[in-house]
Amino acid sequence: GSGDFTSDSQSENSLAKTLETRSDKCSKNLNRPLSDENSTNAVRSYIGTDNTNMQVKGANSDAFRVSVSSALSSSSQGSAQDDCDAFGDVYIWGQIFCDASLLNGNVVTPRTDLLLPRSLDSNLVLDVHAVSCGGRHAALVTRQGEVFTWGEESGGRLGHGVGMDSSQPQLVELFTTCNADFVACGEFHTCAVTMAGDLFTWGDATHTAGLLGHTSEVSHWIPKRVCGPLEGIQVAGLSCGTWHTALITSTGQLYTFGDGTFGVLGHGDRTSVPFPREVESLKGLKTIAVACGVWHTAAVVEVIVTQSSVTTSSGKLFTWGDGDKNRLGHGDKEIWTVPTCVPSLIEYNFHKVACGHNLTVGLTTSGRVFTMGSMVYGQLGNPRSDGKVPILVEDKLANESIEDISCGSYHVAVLTSRNEVYTWGKGANGRLGHGDIEDRKTPTLVEALKDRHVKHISCGSNFAAAICLHRWLSGMDQSQCSACRQTFGFTRKRHHCYNCGHVHCHSCSSKKALRAALSPNPGKAYRVCDSCYFKLNKISEAGGPSSNRKAILPRLSGDNKDKLDRPENRTSKSELVECIDFKTEKHGKRPDSLSVLPSQMANSLQLKDFSVSSTVTNAVHKPVNVPLKSGINSAAVSPFSRKSSPRRSVTPVPTTGGISFSKSIADALKRTNELLTHEVQKLQAQ
Q1: What are phi and psi of 361, to 5 degrees?
Q2: Dist. CA 589–CA 586, nearest whole Å
Q3: Which of 123, 128, 160 is nearest to 144 (CA)?
């Protein structure tokens, strides 16, 4: 009874002090110079450019400040985000794909509507760095560089190599060997960019020519690297439309590919292009953001402006494609086949853009939001709009500074500098997150996320997602248990979960687990709620993330990415296949259970030439469990300094760089390779 409560109170006070120390460490990064790199639909950093001071809301005496750098730092110490222990969680709402066993009755498709944001169901504890929502699927990138996808499978867009739906995030095997930086989802395909700046695409390419950028209409069920015109070029921004894709290089060049109907590719004609092609009319200009709709495209382009003999650069909004419903903002409904500046917004400096089906949304550097397009469902966010010209979204946003924007088919979500989420537009399926299905014609606060520290938002066609930071919630402001909803009182005491940070009663948080996200010492068991205990315990029973999860790697920008782009640092295709095969055997999967096309199997799974080097290199990723020598630093080292980056993950995995293979391990690897080669030959024969 009382003894247990006293012990827990002391432990929780220790946690609060630990978090305050972490936040103080993060606050030191506020005075660091920031780079000029801006974010797009999918970019290197999801924090808004003006977001340098985020205050946790709803906290009193035990509140702490989380200060996160908005962009990748130009200092030698790396970005503030890399120096701050901020564990990312995903919340989703709207129409989602779920486990059919959870639904009553016979259903054709296991979909359900979430009217309020809810934590994403997952059997793993994922430290989420980026998330993207598509038509009926979604993808996320962890801080370790892994890619997980879930939703309805169609034509291979989940990237798992099998035609099975997934109600929970499942690992895309390829990204256990190369580290992803960000992802983007379309209606039928998915794209990911690695830390080296390489573009991988996968999904259904049978609907339109060149949707995946591989010069063919062949669908790909596993990620494939886009080569050709992008060879030696680093991708820094990405957006997926329904029928086309646009990307921005590290030097600001804009490339598009896919269906060219309505001139949506911006090449001056309506011809489809099956491979990435640079937009000629923007050559010599720097594109800093791009967004793809169904039949239109929008981009923010940096131009040189001279006023009163002072020359400055300013982001201008360019649109092209189908001008129906005034979605291009040019005051007409004509088709524009080349990027054209929106004349009525020439006075403003933009840095982000988003597109819906017949809607375009632009965000200025001062935090103002402009919309243009159809007035249907109130998606313009301003009832006074006639839909003919772009209009400023005001009402509840009048006194807010907006940091991030995202569009679904007919709804919009924005993130303020106070980490609050506002939505408006079509409310069907609960996609606005207000607990109902009513449309909203003006921005409305998502109350369910008010006590969360939201750092990024993403809208799919009829659902949405948000990345929230794990943090210590104020127990004084919460009167009910987060799990059983019973009111706290004299006999029902408050206890914090050391993994999710939420407040629970003793009955709902009586267990302890290792590797909790907010624990001061990952090697010691701390109190967690029942839900987190189940997740953490499941990982331990499976052998622990150390056996199949990667260590958190530093995220690079600018010239530092050139080092990764060198030929000697790239992982060859054969090495990727070998690593995937090792992982397959390691997890006990039967080779004949893999749903891979025979032609792909014959061409790809060639392990006869595999050789074991004397040391572990970047080309070989954990084919076996290698014991660490004592004294080896397990923290990821920042490329900007000699100082080790702080541990990010719930379960950090020690790196194995520089550790030599013993002869016994080399022999074991050779025997394993021979056995696997034999299994592959049997599978090919079958």
Answers
A1: -125, 130
A2: 8
A3: 128
The Cα 470–Cα 500 span in angstroms is 6
**Residue for token digits 């050559």?**
283
Contact 553, 145 (CB under 8 A): yes
Closest CA to 49 of 62, 32, 36, 66: 36
Q: Which two tokens stand for residue 594?
A: 């893999």
Report d(CA 395, CA 249) in Å as an integer.
37
* CATH 3.30.40.10 domain residues, the chain: 473-538
Of 13-27, 388-402, 630-644, the one with minimum mean pLDDT is 630-644
Please report which helix (H) or strand (E) contains residue 677, including its range.
helix 663-685
What contacts 402, CB < 8 A, 6 or more positions away?
A: 48, 363, 367, 368, 369, 414, 415, 416, 417
Between CA 172 and CA 186 the distance in angstroms is 17
Q: Secondary structure of 164-213 in the HEC alphabet? A: CCEEEEEECHHHHCCCEEEEEECCCEEEEEECCCCEEEEECCCCCCCCCC
Helix, strand, coil shares of the chain, percent, nearest 5, are 20, 30, 50
Residue appearing with tokens 């002391």: 10
Q: How far apart are CA 118 and CA 560, in angstroms?
A: 38
Structure token pair of residue 172: 């895309």
**Residues contacting 275, CB < 8 A, separation 6+:** 210, 213, 214, 215, 226, 228, 229, 257
SS (H, E, C) 128-167: EEEEEECCCEEEEEECCCCEEEEECCCCCCCCCCCCCCEE
CA dihedral sign, ordered 592, 598, 604, 607: positive
Highest CATH level, class, for 88-469? mainly beta
Residue listed under structure tokens 């990764």: 564
CB pairs under 8 A, 24+ apart, for 396-401? 396/422, 396/442, 396/443, 396/444, 396/445, 397/369, 397/422, 397/443, 400/367, 401/50, 401/366, 401/367
Q: What are the tens digits of pLDDT across the range 543-581?
A: 544 344 555 555 544 444 444 444 444 444 444 444 444
Give the amino acid at 357: H
Helix axis angle for 573-586 and 663-685, nearest 10°, is 90
Residues in the chain: 686
* Closest listed residue to residue 282, CA positions, set 240, 253, 320: 253
Question: What is the DSSP secondary structure assignment for residue 448, as one 8-state letter?
Answer: G
More confident residue, 89 or 197: 197
Domain with CATH 2.130.10.30 in the chain: 88-469
R_g (Cα) of the chain, nearest Å: 25
pLDDT tens digits, 664-675: 677 777 888 888
Write the pLDDT tens digit of every residue in 119-144.
888 877 788 999 999 999 999 999 88
Q: What H or E segment, with its residue span, contains residue 248?
A: strand 244-249
The residues facing 182 across adjacent strands are: 193
Q: Which secondary structure element, helix H or strand E, spans residue 531, and what is its range?
A: helix 530-541
Domain boundaries 473-538, CATH class: alpha beta
CA distance 677 to 669: 12
Cα 620 from Cα 481, distance rounded (Å): 47
